[in-house]
Amino acid sequence: MPDALPPDQPQAARRRWMAVLARASSDELGERLGTLPDYRVLRGPEAGLVMVRGRTGGGGAPFNLGEMTATRCTVRTETGQVGHAYVAGRSERLAELAALADALLQDPARQPALLETLVEPLAAAQRARREAIAAKAAATRVQFFAMRNMRS
Amino acid sequence: MSATISLPGFADPVEEAQATFRAVLDAMARPGTLHRAGERLAPPVPLDQAAAAVLLTLVDNETPLWLDAAAAAARDWLAFHCGATVVETPLDAAFAAALSLPDLSTLPGGSHEVPEASATLILQVAALGSGTRYRLSGPGLREPSVFAASGLPAGFAAVWQRNHALYPCGVDIVLCAGATVAALPRSVSIEEA
Quick count: other Cβ atoms within 10 Å of Cβ B150? Predict the structure, then answer.
């Protein structure tokens, strides 16, 4: 949940935009980035498996839930910023674009404009999608206490 | 940490790592023979192509790496591309990278129960195939062969014989210069020729 991070941490802003970029689709990212500046790929994009861990009951002992496919990429821009991306699935283009966007966002000259035209619209779209799914699920919610009330 | 990485690793990781692994295998099997490695790699200062390629191929997150003071300039690049833990004490290392010969007794030599728990030293020297001449004999060599390298310290043969005497324990050395690799496994006996 990118919106739930404490804003006072120095890395929080970067963590938030990396999370938003990783959840975007490669098409919307490519569209919003427009013409790409020159950059050099340092690593990847390469797909691999990561172990997803869970906690019993949400806060108990950790256990291995299963492996998922993830793709990572690291790029370096002409201005020397190094951007990383780890995205779910095997979209190499998404990983590369997200890494490039992360690098560009670290450039103080580009950051304000990019936050406004790239990160915020993507975050808003993702929030809307999440809320639409939550609303759909909420409509089918079963209120168990109603059954108890009927018996009493 | 990522600020100083400016160079990529292998362009084709699978192909180039396999080719380098083959070169190291052949070099180990026939001590003192010269093999090519890392010709397509753009290594960071101060590493040569061969040393960088061997490190990228062999070192990973399960093998602690020790760097001597000169090789430490490439620390960030190695940590990023290999995912290795860089350790401060040579005795904790599975691999060591150096630009000048360290004291071999400070590297782990394994024990008689687990001789494979020894370190492999990747030593970058000035040149292979020219310079001081050494006579090698031992497993992998049908008859004693002559091997030349420049950049090894004076009295290297005597230092090596102390390491060789520990067999089956002891340290193995992979020598690198430019894009050339040669190996000195602990089983080989060296005298100055």
Answer: 13
Secondary structure of residue A54 in the 3-state scheme: strand
Q: Average the pLDDT over A127-140 and give the result.
A: 93
Number of H helices, E strands in chain B: 4, 10
Nearest-angstrom CA–CA distance, B15 and B21: 10
Chain B contact for A42 (CB, 8 A cutoff): yes
Residue from the list A41, A46, A82 with its beta carbon closest to the beta carbon of B2: A82
What pLDDT score does A1 carry? 39
Closest CA to B167 of B140, B191, B189, B186: B186
Of B5, B13, B81, the CB nearest to A82: B5
Contact B91, B142 (CB under 8 A): no
| B13 touches A at CB < 8 Å | yes
Please state the separation of Cα B98 from the chain's center in Å.
8
Q: Does B7 touch chain A (CB under 8 A)?
A: yes
A50 interfacial to chain B (CB closer than 8 Å): no
Give per-residue pLDDT as tens, A51-71: 999 998 888 899 999 999 999
Mean pLDDT, 10 residues at a time, over chain B (193 residues)? 69 92 96 93 91 94 93 90 91 94 93 94 94 94 93 92 93 95 95 87
Torsion angle (degrees, nearest 10) of CA B92, B98, B103, B107: 20
Q: Residues near A137 by Cβ (< 8 Å), separated by ≥ 6?
A: none
Domains in chain B with CATH codes: 2-192 (3.40.50.11310)
State residue A6's pLDDT score.
53
In whole angstroms, how far apart are CA B25 and each of A8, B54, B57, B173?
52, 11, 12, 12
Please report the pLDDT score of residue B58 as a whole number.
95
User: What is the separation of C-alpha B134 from the centre of its chain, rounded to a whole number of angstroms?
Assistant: 18
Cite the DSSP H helix spans in chain A: 12-23, 26-33, 92-105, 111-114, 120-139, 144-151
| pLDDT at residue A9, rounded to an integer | 66
Q: Is B5 in contact with A46 (Cβ distance < 8 A)?
A: no
Q: Where are the domains of chain A?
A: 2-151
